[in-house]
Amino acid sequence: MLNFFATLGARPGGPGARRLHRSPHFRDGAFRNSTPTRTLLPREAVGALRGFLTHRRQRCLSGAIPVCRPPAGTVTEGLHLTWYGHATVLIEIEGRRVLLDPLWSDRGSPLPGVGPKRLHPMPVALADLPRLDAIVISHDHYDHLDMPTVRALNRTQDAMFVVPLGVGAHLERWGVPAARIVELDWEESAEVGGLTLTATESRHFSGRAFVGSNATLWSSWVIAGRHGRVYYTGDSGYFDGYADIGERHGPFDVTLMQIGAYDNAWPDIHMLPEQAVEAHVRLRGRLLIPVHWGTFHLAPHPWREPVDRLWVEAKARDVAIAVPRPGERVDADAPPEVDPWWQALSLS
User: Fold this and answer.
1) pLDDT (tens digit per residue) in 286-325
2) Which DSSP letter does residue 295 get?
3) φ, ψ for residue 285 (rounded to 5)?
4) Which of 12, 51, 182, 347 has a CA-to-CA distance to 153 between 20 and 30 Å?
5) Burial 86-95 (b: 16+ CB within 10 A, else e)
């Protein structure tokens, strides 16, 4: 029970809280999206729950998701990306390593044995990760900010944690020293290991059960080296600000785009695959790599539908995509042709 309460994290307090209150995105005791946003449409919620239960067979896999063992070795020059599953990605950029939204637990939940279960093992053990320069968090939902993973990384790595405003309070409760935490508002940047990490706008929400809704900020991220640039959506609904981000921070060599866990009951907080392609175009991206799909069942849609729809839309709009297996390393300068490996997995 004590571990459950620790998992909830902590509300921002002290000087950090005062900084939150000065943010232009913080009003009336909570962070706000620039575009009016509803997290759940009540009329559609019943239908979403019914669909989640009645279409369970469409979502179940009868085969094993193929997992690749990432290659060992030193960081090379250039830009390489390894999708470990869900939203967890290792970015190797110009000799540095950045880990996004690390989640090694079997479930993105505050309670063991509760919540959607991981559909494939992680391609690499936490203890076998290479040395990291930065660990970037998009927001504090359980499938993006995982207490056991954070505690393990705090013990085994000396990387900086770069997070949106307020998220540092969770990390400090879990033992991460304040000196290793950088909190940023939208359009603020930090220099870490020769890279520039910039928090940019997204359209979502935050909260960890009783700790409070929208008490901390949510962000997309720009990871920029001397030459290479990567954009990561975090969790986000579609909004007009993607064009502005592309103008300010693009063009991008790679965009990591959320494509899964959508439903009519929450149209404002997760993008459809077609919207992810449109956002990529507005961001001025060169190569699109989908994330936030395939690892957990988080919505009523069939397991492979997000990437099937993405591939159709990308071909229609002449957008380059790479769809790696979990653990497969992608060279941004020489991405592999799309191999529809996911279509070999039949649905029971």
Assistant:
1) 999 999 999 999 999 999 999 999 999 999 999 999 999 9
2) S
3) -90, 155
4) 12
5) bbbbbbbbbe
The residue among 315, 309, 257 whose CA lies nearest residue 282 is: 257
- The predicted model scores a pTM of 0.95
Distance CA 100, CA 23 (A): 24
229-232, strands of its sheet edge to edge: 189-192, 195-200, 220-224, 229-232, 252-258, 285-291, 320-321
The encoded tokens of residue 329 equal: 């390393």
With beta carbons less than 8 A apart as the criterion, state whether 217 and 31 touch.
yes
Distance separating alpha carbons of residues 79 and 278, to the nearest angstrom: 23
Torsion of CA 57, 106, 159, 227, to 10 degrees: -20
- How open is the CA angle 83-86-90, to the nearest 5 degrees? 30
Instruction: List pLDDT tens digits, range 223-276.
Output: 999 999 999 999 999 999 999 999 999 999 999 999 999 999 999 999 999 999
Identify the CA nearest to 16 among candidates 165, 208, 239, 150: 165
Q: 69 lies in which domain range?
A: 2-344
The DSSP secondary-structure symbol of 179 reads G
Number of structural domains the chain divides into: 1
What pLDDT was estimated at residue 72? 73
